[in-house]
Amino acid sequence: MNIYDKALELAKLLADTKEYKDFIAAKENLTKNQICCEILDNFRQAQFEIQVAELSGHEVDEAAREQLEKLYDIISINPTITQYLEAEYKFSRLMSDIQKIISDAVPEWFELDVNKDTLN
Predict the structure, then answer these.
(1) Helices 62-76 & 34-55, crossing angle to 10 degrees?
(2) Which residue intervals of the chain are DSSP H helices?
């Protein structure tokens, strides 16, 4: 069996995990409700804009923070959105764990300083 066959096997195993199945079910449930989708999109957009402003060294105005807090309050009491976010987090965590296992097996691939001896 070659490495591509193993990758396909891993892909099939991932698709069969509880985390992935829960994520797909939560996503399907979320997409049935346009209002929930809009709330989540607005929350993520507001979150992104605040992060960009902070990373750019700009001050975030209080209105933007208040809007984000209001959206968070709505999300936190909405079972459809919270179920989706929890499922998304769990599957993302699984994918991250697998990526780490693969990365740890080939650490040289991720080294940035390949010419450190010749640069010094």
Answers:
(1) 140
(2) 3-15, 18-31, 34-55, 62-76, 79-105, 116-119
Helix axes 18-31, 79-105, angle to 10 degrees: 140
- Closest listed residue to residue 91, CA positions, set 26, 8, 37, 47: 26
Pick from 65, 78, 86: nearest CA to 38? 78
Percent residues over pLDDT 90 in the chain: 85
* Percent of the chain topping pLDDT 70: 92
Where does the pLDDT of residue 65 fall: very low under 50, low under 70, confident under 90, or very high at 90 and above?
very high
CA 31 vs. chain centroid, Å, equals: 18
Which pTM does this prediction carry?
A: 0.83
